[in-house]
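Give me the fold.
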Amino acid sequence: MSATHGTPAVAEKVGTLDAPRSPYRRKARTRGNAELYSWVFMRASGVVLVVLVFGHLFVNLMVGDGVKAIDFAFVGGKWTSPFWQIWDLLMLWLAMIHGTNGVRTIINDYAERDVTRGILKSLLYVAFTIVVVLGTLVIFTFEPCPANADPDLLASFCTE
């Protein structure tokens, strides 16, 4: 109907814009929701990391004798507890995944050539894998009472 008959003449589409009252239709996505999940993960892992890091700093620096007490025996004593092993493992993994995801985003934003982007992300993933694997091995295979160590450096629970 036309505007001369008292009803507005609204086409379903005006040029390339949708008509104001037409229903919203999602456009086809080519990348899926990976970036959305990445964004949500960054926010959630950031909150958890703040708790883990400040807990770590509080126990290591404020409880007991402070920074003067941090030595091999202190770390050895901490890592005899599964609680602190899991705490430090979570801190390591979350920090590495969080940081790797952030650097991946920067690479995607600033690397203009596909080849450059691929090389940088490959190097990033290799570094991530090395640090996470070695860090996990250190946390779970750490020996607080090594053989032939100086007794002055060992924790009090070590027997010769």
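The mean pLDDT is 83.
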